[in-house]
Amino acid sequence: MNRREFIAKSAAALGVSSSAKHNLWAQAAADACLEIAPLKLEIAAGKHVETIAYNGRVPGPLIRWPEGKPIAIDVLNRTSIPEIVHWHGLWIPSEQDGAMEEGSPMIAPGAQLRYDFTPRPSGLRWYHTHTIAGHNLKRGLYSGQFGCFYIEPKNEPGAYDQEIFLTLHDWNAYMAAATDASMDASYDYSTINDRMLGHGTPIRVKLNQRVIFRIVNASATVTHWLALAGHEMTVVAMDGNPVPNPINVTALRLAPAERADVVVEMKNPGVWILGETRDDIRKAGMGIVIEYAAQQGEPKWINPPEVLWEYRPFAHQEAAAIQPDHQIPLLFESKFRGHGDFDYWTINGKSYPKTDTVMLQEGKRYRLAMRNKSADDHPIHLHRHTFEVTSLDGKSMSGLRKDVVVVTANSTAEVDFVAANPGATLFHCHQQSHMDFGFMMLFRYS
Predict the structure, then answer these.
(1) For domain 326-445, which CATH number applies: 2.60.40.420, 2.60.40.10, 2.60.120.230, 3.40.50.10490?
(2) What is the pLDDT of residues 122-144, one digit of tens each?
């Protein structure tokens, strides 16, 4: 049985459970509500994409909530297919996490389900569908099902005058199914939030303001490079977690599912473009206008200098002080099925759902020793835990906490985490097509 058959059969079984739970909760008021439904989204004048979205908008509503305060979120599925919502980066129980592989229930068509958990840790998290897309480039994260979830810390570490949330996304407007055996999706348009460059309301700023941009790459497959013409950005957090060494950059790299909080000192009056550094993607729409008060004219773009992106400058350069109790070797490879079918992905020689299940002991520290033998980069995500990046290509580092790390082609990476959140835990590549075609495995607590 492949993953698609597994999910379809499980969804059918869990649909009744979703409805039953809704009846039990009918008397209680939710703190937030999400409605999953088809949407014809206008991304530019006269340009529309047919998609699925939350609450009739892309991105879905910003959920802003104090750390440690319980929240109840009702989700109503008004589509014709089973759906699910994953709360990315949160330390919550498996059955609430929103991954069917961990035991979270699918939401049947027409059914409603309540997610009930206590959000933590603080910082920029996000929510999105966790269904497969397979050959269909209108499903899963190819669709508009994503939104920002900001968990407010008790003390905000950085002072700022304005806060802006931005989501990056790529759209395939015409092709509903992929036919290329490599499963490399191609896109017609790109947007920041719900508009292509030049077709939305500018972000208006004032001279000498400190503006914090909280940015999520919600693309299914594309790594994006962003720059703000005429300005530098100070990276203060990655994946919602403060970095040990905030540094200035002229361009920012975000792989699928990665987030960054960057602070910009507005000291260069004008009308500028915050956008993708690659011309073809920026011209396809990946950008937004930044307009100073009392400034007019055409938005300006200036190519930033070439940037070699690395995690290490943001971290401590010494090795982690605490050694792991156990090391888990993980080898990533791809295999070609042949006869025009798609490649599939393996972890230690096996493809999900046949991958091995790793058993964890609560309280122990584990090191994931990852080796990528493929020619593709992999944004690796571990559900329900935060890890510390401890080594890249044999070079030690410490202090940088993330929940997505890019293991580049033909490289190695090591991350450490403490098994502190019992329950089934999904490990996978966040590139949608890689996940759909086998790049997943489960950790379980003994």
Answers:
(1) 2.60.40.420
(2) 999 999 999 999 888 899 999 99
CA dist list (Å): 242 to 56, 160, 169, 202, 254: 32, 15, 24, 28, 16
CA-closest candidate to residue 408, choices 437, 429, 384? 429
What lies within 8 Å, CB to CB, of 101 at 6+ separation is 424, 426, 440, 442
| Pair type for strands 71-77 and 112-117 | antiparallel
Element (H, E) at 434: helix 432-436
Residue 171 to residue 244: CA distance in whole angstroms: 35
3-class secondary structure, 435:
helix
> Does domain 162-309 sit in CATH 2.60.40.60?
no
Regions of the chain short of the pLDDT cut 70: 1-27, 157-158, 175-184, 337-342
| pLDDT, tens only, 266-309 | 999 999 999 999 999 999 999 999 999 999 999 999 999 988 99
- The answer to whether 428 and 440 have CB atoms below 8 angstroms apart is yes
- Name the strand (E) or helix (H) holding 152: strand 146-152
- For the chain, what is the total number of helices (H) and then of strands (E)? 4, 30
Q: Are 126 and 88 in contact (CB under 8 A)?
A: yes
3-state helix, strand, coil in the chain (%, to 5): 10, 45, 45
**Phi, psi (5° rounding) for residue 314?**
-85, -10
pLDDT on residue 17: 34
CA distance 222 to 231: 24
Q: DSSP state, 385?
A: -
Quick one: which of 159, 164, 144 has its CA closest to 218?
A: 144
Give the integer Cα–Cα distance in Å for 59 and 52: 11
Would you state the CATH architecture of domain 3-152? Sandwich (2.60)
Cβ neighbours of residue 67 closer than 8 Å, sequence gap 6 or more: 119, 120, 121, 122, 151, 152, 153, 154
pTM value is 0.92
Q: What are phi and psi of 186, to 5 degrees?
A: -115, 150
Return residue ranges of the chain for CATH 2.60.40.420.
Answer: 3-152, 162-309, 326-445
